[in-house]
Specification:
Strand content: 25-35%
Shape: globular
Distance between the termini: 16 Å
Radius of gyration: 17 Å
Order of helices and strands: HHHEEEEEEEEEE
Largest sheet: 6 strands, mixed
Number of helices: 3
Length: 225
């Protein structure tokens, strides 16, 4: 299982954050749409995006590939203009529900400034939204909460994803001042979920813990163990 440890609150307080990626697979054609089932690891997806959707790519090209062709669910950010995400969930044989949360930030002309994979920025040279961290100026209002993201479809495995949520103003309705700490698998493969990935100081809206629902949960395309 991939659950947060008992020291996560201390990690937030100390400002200790890290991330792990890995893997490789051949990318799908952007013109025909992204085949999410052919992408196994976070690193696979990172390479696909860097190769096929460089900085400056127009918004419609990404929507064509991820939403129209790939059948991901489009969600625009409720308050951050120019930010949107593409959600695609895969039920890994009822063991784990894998989420691809591909988010993108665009400039005033609709050109890609940065892409994120489950909260991790893709382009080193892109414009990245600064992460939210504990702030002494918000000491009176900031709150760290133990949270759960239900995944009842994974009735043979991880039915709920645990994480810690930092909220600077203590108001869950204002999401721009939030970050989270949690963990998850590194491979979209029910027979080999891979190493644990640490999601540290990640924007919840861009993450695997994001409460927004995809339009559907796709069944695993391979053979179940």
């Amino acid at each position: 299982m991939f659950l947060t440890s008992g020291c996560v609150g201390q990690a937030f307080a100390l400002g200790l954050f890290c991330a792990v990626l890995g893997g490789f697979v051949s990318p799908s054609s952007a013109q025909s749409g992204i085949d999410f089932h052919s992408v196994v690891t976070l690193q696979d997806m990172r390479q696909l995006i860097m190769t096929q959707f460089p900085l400056g790519t127009d918004r419609q090209t990404l929507r064509n590939a991820f939403v129209d062709g790939g059948k991901a669910t489009l969600r625009e950010h409720p308050s951050r203009k120019g930010s949107e995400k593409y959600l695609y969930d895969i039920n890994l044989c009822r063991i784990y529900v894998w989420r691809w949360n591909i988010s993108a930030d665009f400039d005033a002309n609709g050109r890609l400034q940065q892409a994120y994979i489950n909260g991790f920025a893709v382009f080193p040279d892109g414009i990245t939204v600064p992460p939210v961290a504990p702030d002494a100026a918000h000491q009176a209002t900031q709150k760290i909460s133990e949270m759960q993201r239900p995944r009842p479809e994974a009735d043979r495995g991880e039915k709920s994803l645990a994480y810690m949520l930092l909220d600077l103003d203590g108001n869950p309705a204002t999401i721009e001042d939030q970050s989270l700490l949690g963990t998850g698998p590194s491979r979209a493969d029910p027979g080999n979920l891979g190493k644990t990935v640490n999601y540290d100081n990640v924007d919840p809206w861009r993450s695997i813990f994001d409460p927004d629902a995809a339009d559907f949960i796709a069944p695993y395309a391979g053979n179940c163990p």
